[in-house]
Amino acid sequence: MEVILRERGLWRDKLLAQCKDFKCKEGATNCCSPKSHLEEVITARGHECDFYPKFHCELNFIEQYWGAAKLRYRLTPRTQSFEAMQKNIVACLDDVPPLQIHRYANRSARFMDAYAKGLSGSQAAWATKRYHGHRVLPNTIMEELEKAGKA
């Protein structure tokens, strides 16, 4: 955490890694995790704000959706104007069916669950293929990995 904050010029001395019980004091700014402006705006409007790892297609279903839209865009004829390109992009984004987006979200949820259960990358890939119809993996997944010789 310190390295990332130093790289971005945001490091402050005596910055806490976490507050006691993950509860920051009211109005604290020199604290472990003040909310970003974006998070405050989203939560103030009654929505939940959830950040996914950047550019990690296994854990971020939006990257999978974007990949499907890019594939569709590559198949469109070349455009000569910026406006035509914008229309093609919107059309390609709209062309990805909601069911496919839901499947990407479920796949990401399975990978997150696999990593939370302690599986390695190759084990997680095997488990998510085997249980592709589920949002989470069974609690017996480690036993099944051993039986399959993947442990």
Keywords:
single chain; 151 residues; mainly alpha; 2 domains; 7 helices; flat
Description:
- The chain folds into 2 domains: 2-44, no CATH class; 61-147, no CATH class.
- The protein has helices at 2-7, 37-44, 61-74, 82-95, 98-116, 121-130, 141-147.
- It is an all-alpha fold and 151 residues long.
- The chain is built from 7 helices and no strands.
- Helix content is 52%, strand content 0%.
Provide a compact summary of the structure.
The chain is mainly alpha-helical and 151 residues long.
Evaluate the radius of gyration. 21 Å
**End-to-end distance, in Å?**
31 Å
Total individual domains: 2
In sequence order, what are the helices and strands, one letter per element? HHHHHHH
The helix tally amounts to: 7
Query: Low-confidence spans: pLDDT under 50, at least 5 residues?
Result: none
Give the percentage of residues in beta strands.
under 5%
The assigned structural class equals: mainly alpha
Shape estimate: flat
Q: What is the residue-averaged pLDDT? A: 81
